[in-house]
Amino acid sequence: MSDLRGPHRAIPWTALIGALVLLMAGVAMALYEEQLYQTQRLREAREEAEILAATEAAPVSFRDRSAAEEYVVSVKVNPEVEAVGVYASDGALLAGFVRDGMAPLPKSLGSPRPPKLENDRVFVTVPIVQQSTALGTVYLRARAEPMVNRLLREAVLALLVIMAVIVIAGLGSAQIRLERQAARLAEANGRLQTEMEERAKAEAALRQSQKMEAIGQLSGAIAHDFNNLLMIVKGNLHLLQRKLSLPDDDRHIRAAMEGVRRAASLTQRILAFSRKQDLSPTEVQLSDLIVSMDDLIRNSLKEDIEVVRDLRARSWVVLDPNQMENVVLNLVINARDAMPQGGKLFVSTEDVVITDSEDPETAPGEYVKLIIRDTGIGMSEDVRTKALDPFFTTKPSGQGTGLGLSTTFGFISQSGGSMQIESAPGKGTAIIILLPRVAVAESAKSRERA
Amino acid sequence: MAFLSAEGFLSRSPSRQIGKRAFALAALVVMVSGARADELEYAVKATYLSKFAPFVTWPPSATQKATFDLCLSGSDEVTKLAPEATDGQTVNGKPITVKLLAPGQSADGCQILYVGTSAAAQQELDSVHNKPVLTITDAATGHGIIAFVVVQHHVRFDIDNGLATTAGLSISSKLLSLANAVRPMMGDAR
User: Which of the given ranges, A177-191, A259-273, A414-428, has the highest pLDDT on average?
Assistant: First the structure.
C-alpha cells in the first residue's frame, strides 16, 4: 500500500497504458475506415463506369450519338454521378452530361487515367473494349461523401474513445483514493489497537501498584507497631537478665535475643518494602559505590561466575548508600542463585536521558541507569510479573522470604527511581534501575573523592 | 443536314485521305448535297465494314487463319473505298486483308463478304448463306446478314439474326440494339 503514495501515482500505469492503446486503436481504426471508404467509393464508381462502357461499345464504334446519349441518361439516374463522358477512340467526346453548376467535361480524353479521390469527388476512366478492340473511353465523376462528414463521423468515434479514456482514468484514480483511504484506516486501526493494549497494560500496572500500596500500608503499620512491641520484649529481656543475674551467654536469653533481632530485621525489611523505613539519603556516585563493593560482591559469588563491569556513569544521585549497597548485594545474590552452573554477571552504569517517547512509565529527564544482568535460567513471563510482589518467591520454603525484590523496589521508589525486570526463560535476567540525577557542587564532588 | 454523326469518323484510320475528306465534307453537308453527300455515305459504309467485326463471333473453324479476310464482290463506291478505309486495322489482333473477288469467285474462307452492286449479288449471297461468312449488303442490292439503310440521312443497318444463326455466327446484343431493324428468324423477306 505504501507504494501508492506520492503524487506521481495519481493515475495508475495500467490505466494510462490502457488509454494509450485505446487511442492508438481509435486512430488506426479511423485510418482504416478512411482507406476502406476510398477504396469502396472508387470501386463503386468504377463499376458504374464499366457497366456504361459495356453498353456504349456499339454506339461508340458506330459513332451513334443518340444511342450513346440514351445510355448516358441511364447513368444520370444516380444522383451521386456529377458528370459522365463517353469518348471515342480518337479521344473526341461523343456523348455525356454534366449536372448544373458542375465543372465541365474534359474536351477530349486519350488513354484512361488512374482513378482518384480528390476534393470530395471520385474520378474514374474506363476503356470501352469489345473483343479486345479498344473502342473508346468512359469518364465518370461522382460525388464522394464530403471529407467534413467523414471527419465528423470519426470525431464521434474519437469522442467515444476519449470518454472511455476519461472513465478509465477516473476509475483508476478512484481506486487509488480508495486504497489510500483503506491504508489510512488500517493505520488508524493499528494505532487504536496499540492504544488499547497500552491502556490495558497501564490499568494492570495501576491495579498492581494499588495492591502493593494497600499491602505496604497494612504491613507497614503492623511492622511499626510490631517493632515497638519488639523493643518492649528486648528491653524486658535485658531487665530480666539483670534481675536474675544471668550471664551474657545464657542460652535462653541469647536465643530470645536472637529471635528478637531476627524479628526486628524482618520488620525493618517490611518497612523498607512499604517505603516507610528511615533513610539517610546523601549524594552518591553510583559507579564509585559499586567499585567500593568489589570485595563484597566477589565474596558472595562462586568461582564459576565471571563479573564484567562497565561503569560509565559519572553523574550523582541522592540515596541512602547503605541501603543501596544492600540492594546491589541482594541483586547479585539473586543473580548467583539463577546461575547454579556458573556464568557471567554484568554490572553496568551509564548516564542516560529519557525522552518522552522512550518509556511511558518514566518521566522524561536525566537519569543514571544501573543494569545488573545475569546469564542464568531467566524467568517465565508469569514469574516476571509477580517478581516484585512481597512474599513471592521461587526458592524452596525456608530459603527465601520473598521480600528481596519487593524491598528493593520499595527502596528505589522511595529514592525517586524506577525499576524494571527484563527476562525470559533461558535468556537470563536483567534488572534495570533508573535513578534521577542531581546536580552536585564541585566542592561536594571533591570532598567525596577525598 | 445529313451525316452529322460522321464527324471525325476516320481519324483513327491511317487512311488520312479519306478521313480528311469525310471530315471536310461533314462540315459542308449543311450546304452541299447531291454527289458529295453520296460520297460521304459511301465512305461511312466503307468504314463500317470492319467495325462490325468486334461484335460478331465466328465459329473457331473460321478463324484459324493468320489474317482476317474482308472480301469485296461486285463493284460500287463502297468497294472502291473499302481498302483504304480498313487499311492497317486489326480484328482480334489479326490484320484485315481486303480481297477483291472476281465475278463468280467463291467467297469461302472470307470472314466478311461485302456484295456491292452486281447483277449476281443475290446468287453470291446464297452461295455462302450456310457458311461462316458475315454477309453485308446495301438494302437495295440484296439481302445479307447486315444490310445498310439510310434513315433520315443517317447510315444505319438492319440485321437478319436468323441468317446469322444459319451461317453459324453469333452477333452481340450490343450491335443488335444499335441496328435499325432486327429480323430474328430466317425468312423469305427478300
Answer: A177-191
pLDDT digits (tens, 9 = 90+) for B72-120: 988 888 888 888 888 888 888 888 889 888 887 888 888 999 988 877 7
Q: What's the pLDDT score for residue A350?
A: 92
- Taking the CB of residue A369, how many other CB atoms lie within 10 A of it? 18
Task: Report the C-alpha gap between A28 and A34 in whole angstroms.
Answer: 10
Q: How far apart are alpha carbons B63 and B69 in whole angstroms?
A: 10
Which pLDDT does position A103 carry in this prediction? 85
Rounded Cα distance between A13 and A19, Å, is 10
pTM of the predicted model as reported, rounded to 2 decimal places: 0.49
Q: In what order do the strands lie in the sheet with B68-73?
A: B90-91, B94-100, B68-73, B112-115, B134-138, B146-151, B154-160, B181-183
**Angle between helices A13-55 and A147-243 in degrees, nearest 10:** 170
User: Which residues numbered 152-171 in A keep a CB inside 8 Å of some CB on B?
Assistant: none
Task: Flag whether pLDDT at B23 surpasses 50.
Answer: no
Confidence of residue A196 (pLDDT cuts 50, 70, 90): very high
Q: How far apart are CA B68 and CA A424, in angstroms?
A: 123
- Please state the ipTM of this predicted complex: 0.73
Question: Is B173 within 8 Å of B190 (Cβ atoms)?
Answer: no
Distance from CA of B122 to the nearest CA of A (A): 26
**Contact in structure between A410 and A273 (CB atoms under 8 Å):** yes
Pairing assessment for the beta strands B68-73 and B94-100 based on DSSP bridges: parallel
Mutate to test the interface with B, among A131, A132, A135, A137 (most CBs of B within 10 A): A131
What phi and psi values does residue A348 have, to the nearest 5 degrees? -135, 150
Burial profile A199-215: b = 16 or more Cβ within 10 angstroms, e = fewer = eeeeeeeeeeeeebeeb
